[in-house]
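Hi F.,

I've been meaning to write this up properly since the lab meeting, where we talked about keeping a consistent format for the predictions we share between groups. The idea is simple: the sequence comes first, exactly as it goes in, then the structure tokens exactly as they come out, then a line or two of notes. No screenshots and no reformatting. I'm using this chain as the first example so we have something concrete to point to.
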Amino acid sequence: MWALRFAGRVAHVPDAKGLRDLHTLLSRPGDDVPAVVLLAPEGGEVVVAARRMGGDEVLDDEARSRYRHRLSQLDEEIDRAAELGHDDRVAELDRERAALLAELRAAAGLGGRTRRLGDEAERARKTVTARIRDSLRKLDRAHPELAAHLRATISTGSTCRYQPQDHITWHL
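Output, unedited:
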């Protein structure tokens, strides 16, 4: 159990990984803490460094080039089939083109960046963000003032940070 004191009020909440993440962030105000550190703080620097690197790209340059080439071929074949009035062939080629575009979209991340296979940093970001959000939802019931403060001062992502407006001393 955790005894959480804030704004003259105490709430007792059961232990959770998200609370441990918050504890780490509160103990390091203003510091960027990599999500991989929060995910596995016992892992040490070597594990943290390895997890931050990410895996291989979902599509390498050759695969992307082949996709582009096939899409160009499909565009030409669709135009030819349409000119000849082969509507069934046009529909078939359109389906293949749509499937290729869906695969390309699935392989792209935010801003068109390439997704990576086995990207530990991305998994850590998602996991830690979900753990913290879950703990904040539980705090909404147990201590709404603290939950509101933490929502306003905690940022999550590949790095997480506790950035209070005023100096707050926590007894951790």
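Notes:
The beta strands are 2-6, 9-13, 33-34, 154-155, 159-162.
The mean pLDDT is 84.

If this format works for you, I'll send the rest the same way.

G.
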